[in-house]
From TrEMBL:
PANTHER family: 7-ALPHA-HYDROXYSTEROID DEHYDROGENASE, 7ALPHA-HYDROXYSTEROID DEHYDROGENASE. It comes from the Bacteria. Keywords: NADP, Oxidoreductase. It comes from Nocardiopsis suaedae. SUPFAM superfamilies: NAD(P)-binding Rossmann-fold domains (SSF51735). InterPro entries: NAD(P)-bd_dom_sf, SDR_fam, Sec_Metab_Biosynth_SDR. Belongs to the short-chain dehydrogenases/reductases (SDR) family. This is SDR family NAD(P)-dependent oxidoreductase.
């Protein structure tokens, strides 16, 4: 039976691959993102529904909840993939004002875009619904300075608490934590060949990950077979960071 699957940040990279994986399995997929044109192209390409919105804004999350309730009634799977690194490629922060801008921006981009839709959709989740967050290897080892890693790490205790809260309803809550993934907009062109080679060398598989690698892990966590897996952070990084 087709499920209603909602994927934030579904217009490009990991989010698009995740949405495509669910759509290929026959699910009804809704992709959410801020860039309406990018989102529309992605949705058309994979047979999904585009719902443009800024999930870092409470009003945006509330509008998404209202539209999903009106169109589908319930939600079976929520993938909180929206995020990004506000300071990528900008160099060192220029004083406290710039530092505050970057930290606040990463909080909005990575924490609020996950927390607000999750809280907004609480009453729409079906029994045995699946919630999957996209974290990062940076949550374990830092991001080389700045606020991206700390913001991803902030999601982990929220995931644990949410799993305990929603578990009695049969709902599981997990995350995947990717390492280096080629084919995304994350680095914004700021990753040079030398740094890329160094990150690949940290893996046990000798290669960068792909959006499809992450999509398969997310799809499994949302499957009936993963019904007893909850409050877990599944690392998808080729062994660049050991399991903890």
């Amino acid at each position: 039976m087709a499920r209603t699957v909602v994927v934030s940040g579904g217009g490009t990279g990991i989010g698009r691959a995740v949405a495509a994986r669910f759509a290929a399995g026959g699910d009804r997929v809704v992709v959410i993102g801020r860039r309406a044109d990018v989102l529309s192209r992605a949705a058309d390409g994979i047979g999904a529904t585009a719902l443009p919105a800024d999930l870092g804004d409470p009003a945006g999350a509330e509008r998404v909840r209202a539209e999903l309730a009106d169109r589908f009634g319930t939600v079976d799977v929520l993938v909180n993939n929206a995020g990004g690194n506000v300071g990528t490629g900008d160099g060192a922060a220029d004083g406290l004002t710039d530092t505050a801008r970057r930290w606040a921006g990463d909080f909005r981009a990575n924490v609020l875009t996950s927390v607000l839709p999750t809280e907004a959709l609480r009453d729409l989740f079906t029994p045995s619904a699946r919630i999957v967050f996209v974290s990062s290897i940076a949550a374990y080892r830092g991001s080389g300075g700045g606020s991206y890693g700390p913001m991803k790490a902030a999601l982990h205790p929220y995931i644990y608490d949410l799993a305990a809260d929603l578990g009695p309803r049969g709902i599981t809550v997990n995350a995947v934590a990717p390492g280096l993934i080629d084919g995304t907009e994350f680095f914004g062109g700021a990753l040079d060949d030398e740094r890329h080679a160094a990150l690949v060398a940290q893996t046990r598989t000798g290669r960068a990950g792909t959006p499809g690698d992450v999509a398969e892990a997310v799809h499994w966590l949302a499957s009936p077979g993963a019904g007893h897996v909850t409050a877990q952070i599944v690392q998808v990084n080729g062994g660049a960071e050991n399991g903890r």
